[in-house]
Amino acid sequence: MTPDPYMASGGPGDPKSWNRYTYTRGDPVNRYDPAGMDDSIPTFTDTVWDYTDDYLDYPGATPNELMSCMQDPGCYSSQMGSSGLTPAAAHITPLIAPGTNQDQQQALDAGIDSAWAHLISHPNCLSFLTGNSGEGYVAALMQLSNILMNTTYTFAPLPSGTGAETFSVNQVTISTSGSFFSPPTLGNVVFVQLPNPQGEQIQVGFSSVAMNQAFLLLHELGHQTGVLPADEDDAQNGTNSANILTNCFTKNALGIYQ
To answer: Which residue has the higher pLDDT, 143 or 238?
Structure first.
């Protein structure tokens, strides 16, 4: 015989605790019961685990192990490279203005997926876009995801050379005639013209259309968080772009950003 595992969690002080058939005491929204033995209110760690588990695939890790690693950029980067930690499909769903067509929505979805994967897999990018505030990885991730999910994206023609423009923390317009939709490609590589910090136009290569889309969205995200000042001229635009490329992307052997 073994002790009744339910004994310790039932008591006269809470009459509902005696009835084991009322799962989570009839309140599954605010309570949970992972072991089927004793319901409880989710803690912050439980919530973060549910949140991050949707985005990351870390085989065999416990919630505490993942949380600990995510708070340590060195550990996180190491796990990314050696232990199978890989960005999963994004689950960020931004707001889209009425009148957006299917092609525009599909392009935005692909760009958001790619941008989110960069935020997950590049701690320097996450830190830079939150102002290097020193806050934990998870808190920074939640801050940026909240901005992305509350941004309304519109699509309209913008001046030549402008791929997107931020009008407020929650309002971004993407150019229908810019490289977000029709970039020049050579094989799978996308080449775009960008200003450098001196304001001179240079050619920059991205490893895919989605990478170029991610770059544009992350650039605008920098304006939304206030980390990047307004692109008042080509030199400032080039400086802002260089900061995004340096912090959020890596170059392959051919000098292509990925």
So the answer is: 238
Spatial contact of 97 and 155, defined as CB atoms under 8 Å apart: yes
| Whole-number CA gyration radius for the chain | 23
As a whole number of angstroms, the distance between CA 109 and CA 112 comes to 5
- Counted residue by residue, the chain has a size of 258
* Residue keyed to tokens 């029709």: 182
Q: Tell me what pLDDT residue 92 has.
A: 75
Domains observed in the chain:
28-88 (no CATH), 91-248 (3.40.390)
CB-facing half-sphere around the CA of 36: CA atoms within 13 A? 1
pLDDT (mean) for 214-220:
97
Q: How far apart are CA 4 and CA 94, in angstroms?
A: 49
Global confidence as pTM: 0.68
